[in-house]
Design a protein that fits this description.
- By secondary structure, this protein is of the alpha/beta class.
- The chain has 10 helices and 9 strands.
- Helix 8 packs across helix 10.
- It is globular and about 55 Å long.
Length: about 260
């Protein structure tokens, strides 16, 4: 039996290169990482720097230009933008990396279906227009939430209160559409989510529609409660993916739902 191809696949999937893997902003706690600083640190130690750029898309943040070696995206989210396909993307910085990824893709059968490719390519055509609207709506909604008396805390890099606001300003073209905010007790968050009308309760994000979720019981439910608390996922933390609807309609929906708490 010729095992040469198997060995090549194993080498491609498990290379000797060690890496630093960064998601910025983080999901759902919205922590921002200084990508240029991490790239400098990683390269000084011969580590590849890989960045998950899903929350901002290439329109608002370009990690390769800040020193990253590889960028990954969930194409399901902003790149597609219409919540109707599933996919992932790996963007590399050297031909050698591209050859390894392509070899794995051909050998392991990890290619995207034709229809999904079409849906993502369609979505990318409107990426700039959508992200501009996501960005402006996100800022308006974050300011509204920050001023609301029933909201305990808002986590949004576009607000000056965010601890990494200056880093976000330096490395991003905008602050995006992802907002997390704390409503305190779990019952308050449940009441709020049970009364939204325009916002759709869903674990996904990045669609043209406004999507809302409760990480502690949804996306991050598999994490033990004590670990959730350690990393800042409280029982009343709500994650909001602000859509491109009229911002006054979005705020009106949030306002009437908050009135039920």
């Amino acid at each position: 039996m010729d095992t040469s191809n198997l060995e090549k696949v194993q080498q491609a999937i498990q290379p000797n290169t060690k890496m630093i893997y960064v998601e910025t902003p983080t999901n759902p706690t919205m922590i921002v990482t200084d990508l240029a600083a991490v790239a400098k640190l990683g390269h000084a130690r011969n580590l590849a720097v890989v960045v998950d750029n899903t929350f901002l898309s290439p329109y608002l943040q370009q990690p390769l230009a800040l020193g990253a070696d590889i960028v990954v995206h969930s194409m399901t989210k902003f790149l597609n933008g219409h919540s109707d396909c599933t996919g992932g993307a790996v963007i590399v910085s050297t031909p050698e990396q591209a050859q390894k990824i392509y070899f794995v893709q051909r050998s392991a059968g990890a290619g995207l279906a034709p229809m999904d490719c079409f849906l993502v390519s369609r979505g990318v055509k409107t990426l700039a227009v959508r992200m501009d609207r996501h960005n402006s709506n996100g800022m308006a909604v974050a300011k509204y939430l920050a001023a609301h008396p029933k909201v305990k805390h808002v986590i949004f890099p576009g607000l000056a209160s965010h601890p990494q606001h200056e880093i976000a300003k330096k490395q991003q073209r905008g602050f995006g559409a992802m907002i997390s905010f704390d409503l305190g007790p779990l019952d308050s968050a449940k009441k709020f989510l049970n009364h939204v009308r325009l916002c759709s309760l869903a674990e996904s994000l990045g669609g043209v529609e406004t999507l809302i979720s409760l990480p502690a019981l949804m996306t991050h439910a598999s994490i033990p409660p004590e670990i959730q608390m350690q990393i800042g996922i409280t029982q009343g933390l709500v994650r909001l993916s602000v859509g491109i609807e009229d911002v006054e309609d979005i705020i009106a929906d949030l306002d009437q739902a908050l009135a039920q708490i």
